[in-house]
Specification:
With 225 residues, the chain is of the alpha+beta class. The chain has two domains: 52 residues; 148 residues, Chalcone isomerase (3-Layer(bba) Sandwich). Bound molecules: heme C.
Length: 225
């Protein structure tokens, strides 16, 4: 009797153990299937992003205007108004500057501008100079769009592998594709005065605080140090 009941208990026990094991195994299988599915879609999303933040060119070698730059990472908004430039600044607008998100991630991690980095600079007219907050310079309408692109395999060593594109100094619509600007028109001034690899990081505190800080959680992005 005892043996039988013992066996019964043992059997019951092993049954319930194996049932539990099966459930656990099933759970692990389901979880890992879910994990791999999630990983798959993450990889797909990542691949899609890589493609999205890659400069594209037409058969004439002109850069095709990238899409969606207003959703890139904003780094600064220098302003060179006419009123501070004898009434006639070459670029009297606000310069809203953005870096593509892939290159931002790389900058945070390594403190370097990766091959393929794109900066977008969209110009905005000075609009009102009085508001309820006080006298000042307030954004008017959009007035032009430019790109700086780093690709050492494509561009000259003379410009440290960067090229500059202007899609128009006027209201939208901007040009769909344009050729790179001559070195003297753009790159020369960047070579002469930009602080970090042809980029004017001296005017972008957001880039400076994030440089190479990505390994510390929240550092450089407005979170905890
Ligand atoms: C006389 C100097 C000068 C010339 C010429 C010049 N730039 Fe710049 N550029 C600057 C300065 C200074 C900044 C940073 C602050 C600002 O936006 O004014 C800048 C910033 C930029 C940025 C943002 C990324 C960065 O490198 O800081 C882009 C994009 C850019 N310029 C494109 C162009 C293009 C396109 C041309 C030619 C049509 C051009 N630049 C010509 C001085 C110049």
């Amino acid at each position: 009797m005892r043996n039988v009941s013992m066996r019964g208990i043992t059997m019951k026990h092993s049954k319930s153990v194996s049932a539990r094991t099966m459930t656990a195994l099933g759970g692990i299988l389901l979880a890992s299937a879910g994990f791999y599915l999630a990983l798959g879609s993450m990889n797909e999303a990542h691949a899609a992003d890589n493609e999205m933040y890659k400069a594209k060119f037409n058969t004439a070698g002109e850069m095709i205007r990238p899409a969606g730059w207003r959703e890139w990472v904003f780094v600064g908004s220098p302003l060179t108004p006419n009123s501070l430039n004898g009434g006639a600044a070459p670029f009297p607008e606000f310069h809203s500057v953005y870096i593509d998100p892939e290159s931002w991630a790389h900058w945070k991690k390594t403190g370097k501008f990766r091959e393929g980095t794109m900066f977008a600079k969209e110009l905005t007219l000075v609009g009102e100079t009085k508001a309820t907050s006080g006298n000042g310079f307030f954004n008017g309408d959009l007035q032009g769009f430019e790109i700086a692109h780093k690709d050492s395999s494509r561009y000259s060593k003379e410009t440290d592998g960067w090229a500059y594109y202007s899609f128009g100094h006027h209201a939208e619509p901007y040009a769909d594709s344009v050729a790179a600007m001559p070195t003297a028109a753009c790159a020369a001034c960047h070579t002469a005065a930009a602080a970090d690899d042809m980029v004017f990081t001296q005017y972008y505190p957001i880039l400076r605080v994030a440089k190479g800080a990505g390994h510390k959680k929240g550092a450089g992005v407005g979170g905890k140090k």
